[in-house]
Task: structure prediction
Amino acid sequence: MHTVRLGVVISCCTFALACAGATVRPKVAASKPSSDALLVLPGFGYNHAGEEALRSLAPSMAAEAIDLYVPTFVSRSGLAQSRERLAAFIRANHLERYERVHVFAFIAGGWAFNPLAATDVLPNLSTVVYDRSPYQERAPRIALDKLRWLAWIKYGSVVFDVARTPYVPMTAPAVRIGLVVETEPTRFIQRFAETARGYGPYDFACEAFGQPFDDCLYASLNHDQLYTRFSEVWPDLLAFIRRGQFTDSADRALPEASDQHFPVESPARGR
Result:
């Protein structure tokens, strides 16, 4: 009974990386790339549904002469190994051949990518759009504080690395930077609402994320939904790739944190 219960609890830990899908690469001859490449860096929450959502957009991107790459690089061993795997993916796919490379980084993807971007691995880096969330960025710390051994069994030390590692901002002056800020909490954050609030007040201001930016929008999605409904932000991402600004219709109005999302927190399991 204890073994069955443990398996159920582990499978229900939706705060972090689900079973990552296969790496996505463009179906083109390696010697004939488009002029632009989009490198999407998944983080915690990426699963097969997210993979399929991204794959479904590949034809639309190809019509814009943009090749899509989605590496599976997050490593149980931690951020350093994840960064090494990402660098190896970039080299193996010869992304330096493109005129311009654009990056969309989900939360853990940004933690892994930014120190790497300070090297010469992507000399043609043109734009970076970051997924940020006042809610979801507390999930790794919740995992560390409330579900430490279950999180390690399922995902290794990488979750704890993100929880303990301060965000290192991208500061390259020639790279245009955008922020997509999630405004809804996942069910995991709802479950641990009191713990999450205990880390301090939520701040949705774009300037609060410690990342210089050229444009910022708010998406009425939670972290899980942003993977499966990526098509909803694709028009703004394409606009940012083309002109360094999101669409005129993008939501730039500062939201307020609301307790209406949060039920009463239940006791943590597995402690």
The two ends are 17 Å apart (CA to CA). The longest helix spans residues 48-63. The chain has one domain: 33-246. The first strand starts at residue 36 and ends at 41.
